[in-house]
Amino acid sequence: MVVRKRRRIEVRLDEERGEFLDRELARRGMTVADWFREQVDAEREREARERRLAAVERIASLHLDVPDDPAELKRLLVEEYILGEESLD
User: What are the angstrom distances between the C-alpha of 39 and each of 18, 29, 42, 82, 85?
Assistant: First the structure.
């Protein structure tokens, strides 16, 4: 059985922001919940991109001989340089 946790969030907006949000939702045909989820997903993707870029920059700074085999490169990075596999995904 799958149990999903849900959260209820209340956001209070001044009149100007509320009107803007109403126009945006009407223009896009979305609910507040849909819009909020989209914003959260976009922020999560931005954060993931930053982590990947940081991993690339760390790898580039190592100045190592790059093996031809990608699996060997990953092994070297994980085992020899202790970057952790999550940094390479």
Answer: 16, 15, 5, 34, 28
Predicted model pTM: 0.60
DSSP state string for 22-56? HHHHHHHT--HHHHHHHHHHHHHHHHHHHHHHHHH
Burial class from Cβ neighbours inside 10 Å (0-12, 13-18, 19+) for residue 72 reads exposed
Residues 45-87 have pLDDT tens digits of 999 999 999 988 888 887 777 788 988 888 877 876 665 555 5
- DSSP letters for 49-78: HHHHHHHHHHHHTT--PPPSSHHHHHHIII
